[in-house]
Amino acid sequence: MFLEDTIKHAKKGGWIEVICGSMFSGKTEELIRRLRRAEFARLRVEIFKPKIDVRYSEEEVVSHDENSIQSTPVESAQNILLLSSDVDVVGIDEAQFFDLGLVEVCNKLANSGLRVIVAGLDMDFRGKPFGPIPALLASAEYVTKVHAICVRCGSLANHSHRTSEEDDLVVLGETNIYEPLCRKCYQDEVVKNRKS
Ligand code: ZN
Q1: How far apart are alpha carbons 183 and 190 in whole angstroms?
Q2: Environment class of 196 (CB within 10 Å of its CB; exposed 0-12, middle 13-18, buried 19+)
Q3: Distance from the CA of 177 to the center of ligand 1, in angstroms?
Q4: In this predicted model, what pLDDT tens digit does every residue of 128-169 receive, in sequence order?
Q5: Residues taking part in catalysis
């Protein structure tokens, strides 16, 4: 588990943390856990998510287990910069849906002394790196990859397999059209689909 207490930055500098993994891997739960701890430490916390993610609630970062925390939906990454004055910690959920400008925004925030915690899918349903996440992984001081459990075999899962036919990169929401699969079961699925 990631422990903030072990982070001793000599000078008061900022940094970037990324929490990534497939769907159902507990990314948002881990984001919420860190943000709550920051709030207990009386740090000023602001949480953002892309406006596109309107799954359950306009205002809240909601994880699948309904553990939730108040957040601000924003149109673009630049808005985060404008809305982050007067805070110590910035949380960003569903970061894969932001534009590539998010990388520069996170770096600017960290450079100005803020702690930036980003949670997002590292791969899309095709198994390709997703949006700004790869570049954020490169910039981040701390990276945590969390795993779901493969619904076929019980191994650790790192793929979000889409069970519907839709081809759009962003098909939001419905958790019932995705299933977490391990590498082996995902590959089996790809081979099966190629044949059919
Ligand atoms: Zn499996």
Answers
A1: 10
A2: exposed
A3: 17
A4: 999 999 999 999 999 999 999 999 999 999 999 998 877 776
A5: 94
CA angle 87, 18, 24 (to 5 degrees): 115
Token output for 149: 């459990």
Locus of tokens 């949380």: 91
State the Cα–Cα distance between residues 195 and 143, nearest whole angstrom.
Answer: 37
- Measuring CA to CA, which residue among 60, 66, 63 is closest to residue 47? 60
List of E strands, 26-168:
45-50, 60-62, 68-70, 72-74, 89-92, 115-121, 142-146, 148-149, 156-157, 159-162
CA of 191 to the centre of ligand 1 (A): 14
Q: Which CATH architecture has domain 5-147?
A: 3-Layer(aba) Sandwich (3.40)
The predicted structure's pLDDT at residue 155: 98
Helices (H), 17-132: 27-40, 77-82, 101-111
User: Is the distance from CB of 94 to CB of 48 less than 8 angstroms?
Assistant: no
Farthest-apart Cα atoms in the chain, separation: 58
Give the pLDDT score at 13: 85
Contacts of 10 (CB under 8 A, 6+ apart): none
Ligand 1 centre and the CA of 159: distance in Å? 10
Structure pTM?
0.88
